[in-house]
Amino acid sequence: MPASLAFVVVTFAMTSAFAQTATEYYVVRDASTKKCTVVDKKPTTTTTTVVDNGTFKTRTEAETGMKSMKVCTD
Fold it and tell me: How confident is the model over 55-73, as a mean pLDDT?
């Protein structure tokens, strides 16, 4: 395989792997309603905050994690 083709293949593989893992899910708590939800973008406002270390790789992990967070179950 020519070096330039190998570079393209490796670059594509790395880019594809990054794109698949780039999404993170956050457990956030709304300041006014005191309710927790799962979102796929880190909050940029002061009305919602990330709970504990509420960053997860998948939505399912975030939903499961939210069930064990005391502030979300009260």
Answer: 93
pLDDT interval class at 6 (50, 70, 90): very low
For the range 35-40, what are the long-range contacts, defined as Cβ-Cβ under 8 Å and sequence gap of 24 or more? 36/66, 36/69, 36/71, 36/72, 38/62, 38/63, 38/66
- Any domain includes 4: no
> Is there a domain that residue 66 lies in?
yes
Count up the domains in the chain and report the number: 1
User: Could you tell me the pTM of the whole model?
Assistant: 0.67
Does some domain include residue 17?
no
